[in-house]
Amino acid sequence: MKKRILSVLLAAAMVGTMLVGCGSSSSSKSSDDAKTESSGEKKVIKLGVRDNADQVNAVMDAIEEAGYKVDVTVFDDSNQPNVALGEGSIDINWYQHEPFLKAYNDANGTDFVMVEPKTAAPLFAMYSEKIKSVDELKDGDTIALCSDASNKSRGLHLLESQGLITLDDSVETPTQYDIKENKLNLKFIEADMQVLPQSLPDVAAILCAAAHMVNAGLDGTDYVCASDDAETYAVGFVVRKEDKDAEWATGLAKAVQCDALADYYKTEKQGTMVPMWELNK
């Protein structure tokens, strides 16, 4: 399993100090820290992320102020943070939205749960280097979809909302094989969403989360059309079922609901992630 470890162990006397390394921190020390909160030490939470480690850095002060330390593991693909959660090598992960989590649980027989409160609603859109409007799509054009089930379905629903295809409405998470009508005979390819922006020169359009465009150094706000379902795809912290009400889990989820994270989304993510606490005002 590919992964690189960012050990972020904040001591009370070292506010804002972050230790980043290539190996995992001492398992015995982390275990001891996790069990000795009653003795005055802060809990060390083993947190798994994908390509959003900088998001953790943005809220590190808020996490420490809430009384926690985090030991961060950055994974190289979208399933490994859930695999690690099941294996127990991490306590919690922070990278996925609810439909992705449901699809993973259904496919793998797991019962992971998203902790309340949720963090943010991500924009999802169509991007292209060749067209400015869906009306410019031509017969036989190729569209690049996300390869994972939930985001693939989200992309297909976006195409349907634009009148380009009709889906079998009896299928909860449709694939291209559930397209009942394809007016332009669109063709489809699939790729992991993290690398999907690299397909832009080769296809008529791609369908992906705006944050991944930003991660690729592109303009996440320069889209052809966008979905209106962001709240349905809320991103948040995910734990094993037995930990869903654990004080450390809900405490961490509450701690990151801060101005620092809202500012990070506005500046670093170009406003393509909307904080749930602002969305629900």
TrEMBL record:
Membrane topology label: Lipid-anchor
GO cellular component: membrane
Biased composition, class Basic and acidic residues, residue ranges: 30-41
Signal peptide start-end: 1-20
Segments of this protein annotated with the region Disordered: 22-41
Compartments, record wording: Membrane
UniProt keyword list: Lipoprotein, Membrane, Palmitate, Signal
InterPro entries: Lipoprotein_NlpA
PROSITE patterns recorded: PROKAR_LIPOPROTEIN (PS51257)
Family of this protein: Belongs to the NlpA lipoprotein family.
Official protein name in the record: D-methionine-binding lipoprotein MetQ
Originating organism: Dorea formicigenerans
